[in-house]
Design goal:
The structure is a single chain. Helix content is 13%, strand content 27%. By secondary structure, the protein is α+β, with helices and mostly antiparallel strands. It folds into 2 domains: 127 residues, no CATH class; 95 residues, no CATH class. A hairpin with a 6-residue loop joins strand 10 and strand 11. The N terminus is likely disordered.
């Protein structure tokens, strides 16, 4: 994998630093796990941050990261990340604590920069992209939903919006941009929103696999069109990134269903 070093952070950077940090699919029972919450009201030059001493013996360290948009809002989970502390120290993203010493204690700093992304970095150093920061843990409520009574008509629609770790990973890799049209929804809270679609649907009768190559990041409009199979797909029409190639066989399966409509 390729390391991304950031001098001027960009919200279009892919999450492809897997040799130093990666989204954890699970946390081993005997692993060291730390839970940090960054707050919008706790800032220093460059953005909100949290830091603490850790020991190299804790590597790989599993960091469970959350974010408070405001002090009155509940904490939003950013994700659980597996950090290679020795690699981070070697490449200059963390430093010995105290600085200049040669012991096993290091200081880990996580910043949420003004671009909205999360980085592991020193106060003055370059940043290692940890996560495209605008991660919504669940589908946000629309602005027109209130407690006021409203006339209701009962309807039934079967559309499943999944938010698995793989789905989040795909969204991160594409910066929450639709792989078909490139559109990205930015919410008033500063969060970004996209949906994940399984090209070959899960479950009966399709039995598609829950794997990265069968998942695409899409906007809600294209997600609905794909769910109801109103559009065909081609590999060339899908934006691809190095760490997320889509498999043509799943696209062919979708198009087979489309041709039968």
């Amino acid at each position: 994998m390729t390391r991304v070093e950031v001098d001027i952070p960009s919200d279009d950077l892919p999450l492809n630093n897997y040799h130093l940090c990666e989204i954890a699919q699970e946390v081993p029972r005997d692993a060291t796990r730390r839970r940090w919450t960054l707050r919008a009201d706790y800032r220093c030059p460059g953005g909100s941050h949290h830091h603490a001493p850790v020991n190299l013996s804790e590597s790989p360290l599993y960091l469970d990261l959350s974010w408070h948009q405001t002090t009155d809002d509940p904490a939003l989970p950013v994700g659980v990340f597996r950090l290679d502390l020795n690699g981070l120290l070697r490449d200059g993203y963390i430093r010995h604590d105290p600085e200049g010493s040669n012991g096993t204690n290091v200081r880990l700093r996580v910043f949420r920069d003004d671009d909205g992304n999360f980085y592991v970095k020193t106060n003055q150093g370059t940043g290692l992209l940890l996560a495209n920061g605008n991660i919504a843990p669940a589908t946000p409520l629309a602005a027109d939903i209130t407690n006021a009574p409203a006339n209701r008509v009962e309807t039934t629609t079967y559309r499943i919006l999944r938010d698995t770790e793989l789905a989040r990973k795909v969204k991160l890799l594409h910066g929450y941009r639709c792989q078909i049209c490139g559109y990205r929804i930015k919410l008033p809270s500063g969060l970004q929103y996209a949906e994940a679609h399984h090209i070959q649907p899960l479950g009966e009768p399709h039995n598609g696999p829950d794997v990265l190559s069968n998942i695409i990041c899409v906007c809600p409009n294209h997600h609905a069109e794909l769910d109801y199979c109103t559009v065909a797909l081609t590999i060339s029409s899908l934006t691809q990134v190095a760490d997320h190639p889509n498999d043509r066989k799943y696209v062919d399966y979708h198009n087979q269903i489309f041709s039968q409509k």
